[in-house]
Specification:
Elements lengths: L23 E10 L4 E10 L5 E5 L2 E7 L8 E7 L10 H9 L3 E6 L14 H20 L3 H4 E11 L1 H9 L8 H4 L17 E5 L19 E6 L7 H10 L6 E6 L31 H20 L9
Parallel strand pairs: 1-4, 5-6, 5-7, 7-8, 8-9, 9-10
Antiparallel strand pairs: 1-2, 2-6, 3-4
Length: 319
């Protein structure tokens, strides 16, 4: 696997020591969005002690301890947002890896903008709904007597792929505006989204950012950013990442690299052979790219990055 090519100089962080991996627990949670009148399905991965067993998760089978007790206290909490018309199972390997490394990972399905339920794609409603979904999920998890008791409220992160990165940026303080796609004209209008002050880290993969083209759109974001983009991404090419690179205010820590040979969908968990074909673009990578090897490396980097951020006093991130 070739080394990443950094888009611009970034501080090199010392990897954390290898810790003993926990079994991954798994439970399903349903949350109601009172605005959209829709059910938000959440898959929660977390450290457990029980024996794992093969368990269905969407069309896949994962090795988890279903509905096992949470086996650690003070767990960082990472909420993961899928891409436009995507599905949370596409980030199951990230969820499993975070759980095995002592963190909770909540993989969210966005009603109205997910596989099989995508009628709101390309609408203002979609841009407004998605950040609210993450806000509702965080509130529900932290209020839960079991989950909230095991979560560290000072160690909350958002992760997103493609439109999921738009979603994470919005909740962390981004101020999006509409595009011609949503309104039919070139006049931008403000997108109404919630903001949270407790986001300590952002994990952005192949980010879609056109809605942050205004000069001050990202200036209120305080969380450090870990960003990876694909060299051969034709869906969100590098100018999307440039909006983040140039839009954050000076001093925001940023771990940023372009992944040689990667495409837009290279950040999603691999598809099984029977579902891998040119007719299913998310299953495809540029010629010669090894998605499995890349994701093993990426998921390790994400864990190391989060540990480095969470091990610092929170005040050093609030510039």
């Amino acid at each position: 696997m070739p080394r990443y090519r950094r888009a611009h100089p970034a501080k090199t962080e010392k990897p954390t020591a290898m810790a003993k991996l926990s079994p991954a627990g798994f439970r399903r949670i349903e949350i109601t969005d009172p605005v959209q009148h829709a059910r938000i399905d959440v898959a929660l991965f977390y450290p457990a002690e029980d024996r794992t067993a093969p368990t269905p998760y969407g069309p896949y089978v994962i090795e988890v301890a279903s509905d096992a007790p949470i086996a650690a206290n003070g767990c960082p909490l990472v909420v993961v947002s899928h891409g436009n018309g995507g599905f949370p199972e596409a980030h199951r390997d990230l969820g499993l890896h975070l759980a095995r490394n002592g963190m909770m990972a909540a993989l969210v399905r966005h009603p109205g903008n997910t596989t099989g339920d995508n009628g709101l794609a390309g609408t203002i409603d979609c841009l407004e709904n998605r950040p609210r979904h993450l806000d509702l999920v965080l509130n529900a998890l932290l209020a839960d007597t079991d989950i909230g008791a095991h979560a560290d409220r000072e160690k909350i992160a958002l992760a997103g792929h493609s439109l999921g990165a738009y979603t994470a940026l919005a909740l962390a303080g981004g101020v999006p505006v509409t595009s011609e796609r949503e309104t039919g004209d070139a006049s931008p209008a403000a997108v109404q989204v919630p903001h949270r002050d407790d986001i300590r880290a952002l994990i952005l993969m192949a980010p879609a950012t056109f809605w942050y083209r205004e000069s001050e759109a990202l200036k209120a974001i305080k969380a450090p950013v870990f960003m990876r983009t694909g060299e051969k991404d034709t869906i969100t090419p590098q100018w999307h990442a440039d909006i983040i690179r140039h839009g954050l205010r000076p001093g925001i820590p940023m771990n940023d690299a372009i992944v040689p040979g990667a495409g837009h969908f290279s950040f999603m968990s691999p598809f099984p052979p029977e579902r891998t074909s040119p007719g299913l673009p998310p299953s495809q990578d540029p010629l010669g790219f090894d998605r499995r090897a890349f994701l093993r490396s990426l998921n390790d980097e994400i864990v190391d990055n989060l540990r480095n951020i969470f091990d610092r006093p929170a005040s050093t991130d609030r510039l």
